[in-house]
Amino acid sequence: MVLPEKVPFRPGYELTLKRIFDRALYMFPDMEIVYRTREGLGRYTFKDLASRVEKLASALSSLGVGKLDRVATLDWNTHWHYEAYFAVPMMGAVLHPVNIRLAPAEIAYVMSHAEDKVAIVHRDFIPLIEAVAPRVKSLEHIIVVDSDGVPDRIGGVRATHYEDLIKGHAGYEWPEVDENQPAAMGYTSGTTGLPKGVYHSHRAMVLHALSGALNVASMGERRLSSTDTILHIVPMFHVYSWGLPYISAILGLKQVYPNRLDPKVLLDLIESEGVTFTAGVPTILYMLLSHPDSGKYDLSKLTFVVGGSALPRGLAEAARKRGIYVYVGYGMTETAPILTLATIPARYLNRSEEEKLELSLRTGWPIPLVDLMVADPDLNPVPRNGKTMGEIVVRAPWVTYEYYKNPEKTEEAWRGGWFHTGDIAVWMEDGSVVIVDRDKDVIKSGGEWISSVRLEDAISRHPGVAQVAVIAAKHEKWGERPVALVVPKPGWEDKLTEEEIIGFLTRNFVEKGEIPKWWLPDKVILVEDLPKTSVGKINKRVLREKYGGVLQ
Amino acid sequence: MVLPEKVPFRPGYELTLKRIFDRALYMFPDMEIVYRTREGLGRYTFKDLASRVEKLASALSSLGVGKLDRVATLDWNTHWHYEAYFAVPMMGAVLHPVNIRLAPAEIAYVMSHAEDKVAIVHRDFIPLIEAVAPRVKSLEHIIVVDSDGVPDRIGGVRATHYEDLIKGHAGYEWPEVDENQPAAMGYTSGTTGLPKGVYHSHRAMVLHALSGALNVASMGERRLSSTDTILHIVPMFHVYSWGLPYISAILGLKQVYPNRLDPKVLLDLIESEGVTFTAGVPTILYMLLSHPDSGKYDLSKLTFVVGGSALPRGLAEAARKRGIYVYVGYGMTETAPILTLATIPARYLNRSEEEKLELSLRTGWPIPLVDLMVADPDLNPVPRNGKTMGEIVVRAPWVTYEYYKNPEKTEEAWRGGWFHTGDIAVWMEDGSVVIVDRDKDVIKSGGEWISSVRLEDAISRHPGVAQVAVIAAKHEKWGERPVALVVPKPGWEDKLTEEEIIGFLTRNFVEKGEIPKWWLPDKVILVEDLPKTSVGKINKRVLREKYGGVLQ
Fold first, then answer.
1. Domain end call among B195, B219, B246
2. Which is deepest, A268, B170, B303, B331, by most CB within 10 Å?
3. Is residue A283 part of a domain?
């Protein structure tokens, strides 16, 4: 008998999502969960949720859902969705939140590609699933939530009301689940080509949630704890809502599920439920601040983590003026998703507010267990000087193993043993990173790189600018040159001109040495609105098609 | 191509201690580490430590230490010890901190049983290792720390000075290590029979540290963060110093390594280094409070987690009077070690100080990923009523797989798929547990159980009691009956009598219904001191031998 090379597992050793569920039920059975339905606000405790989760698992089992079967969800941020987040993986099946912002043809594609067997569908998406269902051969059952009545069949597929379905069930014997078994899958909302599928094991999801919880509890100016209340704004149909539903369960937060996102409702909930923490894309933050009634609400207790796309400095300052503590988070579907958070390390806590704002607006520092490098094309680290651009490449226990059924893309993404994010960043001496562009959005002008994001940030500081996007237009001499698309704020429609913007940039950035003169956009185009992707990011692909033609 | 049943691992997926090391080096390179040597106080940064850790690994490698080889340490809480905590497991070898409080014959036994190849030895233990080395056949090399000179051979084994050894080395290529490979091992300081060996994988150590860090950062009245300073009092030769050296690295704490524990030095360090957090057995807390100079020190910023044995209420109150925030932690060598912490859940934070003290003195709530049950002999959970006694049984990713080379004890401890702690507790409705006794210390009187710990707690509240132990004495009629051994406080030697103690218990506990009358000790014996075990706990085995004979 000797020391084993590998210590075997004993009961209780597996990192499955049931661990998070059991912990929350043990420690925080009275954790309050507030949810909005078509009937208004409801609330229950985690203990109530737990018994419904058991019923749901039992009901799904009776529909024939077994190990590794995929269960799709087409739902807003509802408590039904949260129940599925636990029940489906814990029973050994695979949760597949479908991005309902995709086009119907794309949804038919991803549901067929994932071979979804059952779909849990919000009433808002009954017309959608009706159109899609006939093209998803694997689909056997549709479960409808937040609806009064449900037809017997939708798009030719049997349909049941969620509440009717679980009514007859009580208790469920949870199976043993291997921690390396897939727990959930999702599809990238890439702006080019078909969506690509990724999946994550229980272990990946659990470690992601533990690490995320540890980071937000131990780092930064406003550390999270079970005295906080979270409003779930990040769509649960997109990158697992950043893992926040699981992180909330670990930390025992009071949680608010707002159903379909409506800015006025969100403002109401923030005030009435005492929300202290939320997260979302910049667009949502912008909507909260620009809503006509926004000024009537006290937002000063709120922390808002911004991710999904770059946070313009102007928007951040507007939020801070309202007392909202804003900082940046970064990740992607492939990475389950959090990679970095701009939670300020303790050594900076005594700095000026101005400095701390700058630090909070960086892309951030890697969260625990994330191994990150800003690399040149040969996979060597670039200098940590805040200037040299490189690609962010990562390793972490929660980075996807592969693109599902797509070995070519997998090999490309994992070349050299690092996962390539496609994000271009500079690396600061203190280990933080600042994304300056997407690989495909960076403007390659005369052999040098121009960061579209940095230009957008500078332009956004003009008081008359509501939204801005900078794209690469083709150029005969330079290859590419920057073009800016600008949405004026109400009242600025007449005053905001190309000359005004270029003059603003010249005076405030070029003459101060913050931006090289040759970065100045060749063209500034005033527009009424900017096209968005399915997840609310500005759709640069559409802009490039429209405005990216040869300049001269 | 289908969804795999088990997601394979990609680079960066393994939970090895190098993850904690790399994270600390990336996020907190300037983390300050203060250490005491024979030459006085020194200080360096984590970055400095990291380069010495590389040198140590390289040096050990040159001595022939390879995968799974055991490296023993016989050392106090020094920075050398901390360097070994990282270097040894990270190079794929196994760290074996030897409990230097064991008898020399026991140390020879555990070092032979573990087959230690190299030993890192503090100068204080040169005489010890000299006596022991000839009996440890596997031992090839001794490395001495905190010493001026080192003889060529100690006890027949080649010897080198630590600093001489690492001097010539620079850089080290860390090998890939499987997370399930053993990282460290230790021996229980059980009061009966030979010490039993346990070992823990990298994964177990990492998850323990992550969970511990998450708990102390997110729960309780005084949440830890990188603005805190920790004084390492829990011996690093015992249960991995409760994982606190790793937890400190994760959280980026300023750390103080005090070398051999000396109450006066500890008090000096607490004040001069601004210590805010420490942990240890009640005896150390008692020593800090009862030191003649204690009153001159400001201890009001200190949090002291007490574990290892029950914290008497009187001692806790004395500590609180000095402004020390005291709470309880619980674990054992077999469980790497933390199982519970009495970090008060948020719902209690508004309670009275009196109530919060009571909560802080419970054995506590399980930390994340610990599955805990208070069970009857048939492994059914006892009611959560705060009254029914049962044994604490647990499952967690960091509970030892087995007793090394001891299948019988392993089977006994793991019967029914739960690890049996041997601790008798009551379970509260809110999920916390309160240990009332060790399985072997509980007094079985007339078929009912009397908790020796509860009696000790009551007696300790008498203003004249310095220390107390209650043991079972044999009794012809009742089987066993309680006997109390009491050490009076200075000045109370004459006033403290058996009648005084019994009267105190009767008035304050029996008449108030807090303790049944039949629990009153049959005998109260005044003594000058109580025997301690190797880790500073009161040695009840010795007391039972001396005072446990038949009473009537």
1. B195
2. B331
3. no
CATH number of the domain enclosing B461 = 3.30.300.30
Which tokens hold the place of B529?
């001191």
Amino acid at B369: L
Q: What is the DSSP string of B241-297?
A: GGGHHHHHHHHT-EEEE-BS--HHHHHHHHHHTT--EEEE-HHHHHHHHHSTTGGGS
pLDDT tens digits along A231-279:
999 999 999 999 999 999 999 999 999 999 999 999 999 999 999 999 9
Given B140, B167, B195, the domain boundary residue is: B195
Mean pLDDT of B163-170: 96
Does residue A202 register a pLDDT over 80?
yes
Tokens of B486: 């009491």
Query: B372 to chain A nearest CA, in Å?
Result: 10
Q: State how far the Cα of B133 lies from the Cα of B119, in Å rounded to an integer.
A: 10
DSSP state of B336: S
Flag whether A153 is in a domain: yes
Q: What are phi and psi of A431, to 5 degrees?
A: 90, -10
Rounded to an integer, what distance in angstroms lies between the CA atom of residue A254 and that of residue B74? 48
Structure-block tokens of residue A200? 């994550």
Q: Which residue type sits at B64?
A: G
Return the SS3 of A389: strand
B397 lies in some domain: no
| Other beta carbons within 10 Å of A119 | 28
Residue B99 Cα distances to A325, B231, B308, angstroms: 49, 20, 14
Residue-wise DSSP of B450-473:
E-HHHHHHHHHTSTTEEEEEEEEE
Q: Look at residue B253 in the predicted model and tell me its pLDDT.
A: 98
Which position has the token pair 């039993």?
B196
Looking at residue B245, its amino acid is: P
Residues of B in contact with A399 (CB under 8 A): 10, 12
User: What is the separation, in whole angstroms, between the first and last Cα of chain B?
Assistant: 79
Instruction: Give the closest residue to A235 by CA, choosing from A44, A97, A38.
Output: A97
pLDDT digits (tens, 9 = 90+) for B392-415: 999 999 999 999 999 999 999 999
Nearest CB to B371: which of A12, A251, A347?
A12
Q: Report CA torsion sign: B80, B21, B369, A49.
A: positive
Active site residue A523: no
Lowest mean pLDDT of A335-344, A388-397, B535-544, name the range: B535-544
User: What's the pLDDT at B442?
Assistant: 85
Residue B517 belongs to some domain of the structure: yes
Helix (H) or strand (E) holding B83: helix B79-90
Q: Is B188 a catalytic residue?
A: yes
Q: CA B266 to CA B34: how far, in whole Å?
A: 13
Q: Token pair for residue B4?
A: 């795999």
To 10 degrees, what angle do helices A282-290 and A313-321 make?
A: 40
- Domain range for B139: 43-179+187-195
Predicted-complex ipTM score: 0.90
Contacts of B28 in chain A (CB under 8 A): 345
E strands within A173-302? 182-187, 197-201, 229-231, 254-257, 277-280
Residue B64 near residue B117, CB atoms below 8 Å: yes
Is residue B518 annotated as a catalytic residue, yes or no?
Answer: no
Taking the alpha carbons at both ends of chain A, their separation in whole angstroms is 79
Number of domains in chain B: 2
Task: Kindly give the residue spans of alpha helices, DSSP state H, lying in A240-322.
Answer: 244-251, 263-272, 282-290, 313-321
Q: Which of A291, A287, A289, A288 is nearest to A318 (CA)?
A: A289
B163: domain CATH number?
3.40.50.980
